[in-house]
Each structure stands twice: as C-alpha cells, then as structure tokens.
Design goal:
The protein has 202 residues and is of the alpha+beta class. It has one domain: NAD(P)-binding Rossmann-like Domain (Rossmann fold). It has helices spanning 2-9, 25-28, 44-57, 101-107, 111-117, 129-147; strands spanning 37-39, 61-70, 76-86, 158-162, 168-171. It has a 5-stranded mixed sheet, with helices on both faces. A hairpin with a 5-residue loop joins strand 4 (158-162) and strand 5. The structure holds zinc ion. Zinc ion (ZN) binds at residues 91-92, 94-95, 176, 179, 181-182.
Length: 202
C-alpha cells in the first residue's frame, strides 16, 4: 500500500521494500544510510535495533503508535496515541524505559519455551487503527516541519494524545548521562560500523 501511494505521488520515486523483520541483521543493515526512520513496529526487539541505529549511525527518527490499558474489571482506563521524536544524543528508548527487558527476553524465546514458562495472561490486541492514524498524522507533520525548516523553535517533547480526555500531554524525554546506548561516552554513540547492531541473525 505504501509503495502504491508513493508511486502515485511521485512516479519516478525509487522504492525498496522489505516485508521482513527489522531486527534481522540483513534488514537493519539496509537502514544504516537512512535520512529518517519512522518506527511503528510492535516488538521490543524492533525498538532495540532501531534505537541502536539512531545513535550508532546518527539518524533522526520517530517512534509512534498507541496504547490502550484496561483495569481488572475490563474498564478502559487509558487510551492514547503516542508520538516520540528520537534524536541522536537526546535521550533514547532505554533512558525512557520504552524497551521492556522482560518482553525483550520473552520475544527471544520460541513459542514452546514461552508456553513452558507460562508467562502472564495475554490481553487480546485492541483495535487501534484510529488511534494509530492520529499518531501517524502527527509524526508525518513533525517530519515535514523539520525537513522544510518550518518547526517553531521548541523542544522536541514526546506527545501523548489522550482519546478519553482529548488532552495532549507533552512529556520531556529523559536523558541518562550514563546510558551505554545513547550517551556520547557510551559504547554505541556515533560508532557506525565500529560496533555490531543488536540484531538477530538472518
Ligand atoms: Zn539512552
């Protein structure tokens, strides 16, 4: 669908698409020279790898999506669209606790291993198409404003747009000065091909 829309907008556009997991080394490697990354994947491993690409290869990006939370009675207590601009050297998904080590470990297991360990009860995935449409629109606006030099001189906050209250919450990203993944003195920042990406083989 993306390819069709891009071609309609610009028939001479060069499009490469990979229907594959960004966490695989062969796929992540193709993104090293990107000018910008829209991270809209669900898995923690995708966040891990793209977070590394951003800081290792100095690529601006945005993480976008939505979150719906229900209490034990099934009452929806939170529903929001999230747009989180990510810039090299300005805090990362680790600093902001947006990569869950437990989920990351769980994703690394096979289906059989997951069953054997009987992780907590999974919630069914809610339908979030309209929430995601809000975050996608804002993320593209932010990208356009930045690349056209039109963004007002303001700090790049994370934006949470609450569908229950209609309120916009601006969250100042945290930046851990000792973060090994994104601090300038860490193991990854601006190292390019000098260190490996945290990818799966394949
Ligand atoms: Zn960090």
């Amino acid at each position: 669908m993306a390819r069709r829309l891009i071609q309609q907008a610009n028939p001479s556009a060069h499009i490469e698409h990979f229907a594959a997991d960004v966490a695989k080394a062969s796929v992540a490697g193709r993104l090293k020279g990107s000018d910008y990354i829209f991270l809209a994947a669900n898995s923690m491993r995708a966040r891990l790898v793209v977070n590394a690409l951003i800081h290792q290869y100095l690529i601006p990006a945005v993480q976008l999506g939505s979150k719906v939370r229900a209490d034990e009675q099934g009452q929806v207590v939170d529903a929001f669209s999230a747009i989180r601009p990510l810039r090299p050297g300005a805090g990362c998904l680790w600093c902001n606790q947006l990569i869950d080590p437990n989920l990351l470990a769980k994703e690394a297991k096979t289906d059989a291993e997951r069953k054997a360990q009987a992780y907590g009860v999974e919630e069914p995935n809610p339908s979030v198409i309209s929430l995601n449409a809000v975050s996608a629109g804002h993320a593209v606006n932010d990208f356009l404003m930045d690349y056209l030099g039109l963004r007002a001189d303001r700090p790049l906050h994370y934006q949470h747009i609450n569908a229950l209250t209609g309120k916009l919450q601006l969250v100042e990203p945290r930046q851990d000065v000792d973060c090994p993944e994104c601090s300038t003195g860490g193991m990854r920042f601006a190292r390019g091909d000098g260190v490996d990406l945290p990818c799966m083989e394949g």
